[in-house]
């Protein structure tokens, strides 16, 4: 079990999107969050809503738990905040020991190696990026994939955007009906490698701002 702290960043999973928010206040039995946002889009949470939530601790461990929205109110800055409580014990999902996407980036993928112009129109599945380096990524999804499966990915991080290909090289169960996959990139050219490195630098800068 981890303990939340004031200013912790949480990732709220809502309709296959991840909205970020900060812990503003901690009291016995409840905590207060600011309005969750994704890029420039914010969302107002309904009273009684139960939401799957992600959080990293100071050691890089990823935890998952559910929260319930107890109430909404206006704070002293005249901004809407949400009063929430835990719905269940937290589950430790994954220890992160590489460069990590602390912002729980949502990725989209399709099976097979697909040309970029076709991939943009193709049906895609959603996953949550766990980490990324020059040779591959690790991501979570509920979909069952097999070793050797070829995938085409769309990865976004702020202004960084990348469509790349890779093959599944590792499969792990996470004990919560999800799978953790390790994927090696396939024959990245110099231009793609430069995009990946740029994305890594952006992620590292984000993390340093949180320290």
TrEMBL record:
List, alphabetically, the Pfam families matched. Answer: PilZ
User: Which GO terms label this protein's molecular function in UniProt?
Assistant: cyclic-di-GMP binding
What residue stretches are annotated with the PilZ domain? Answer: 122-199
Kindly give the InterPro entries that the UniProt entry links to this protein: PilZ_domain
Q: Which residues form a coiled coil?
A: none
According to UniProt, the name of this protein is PilZ domain-containing protein
- Species annotation: Clostridium fallax
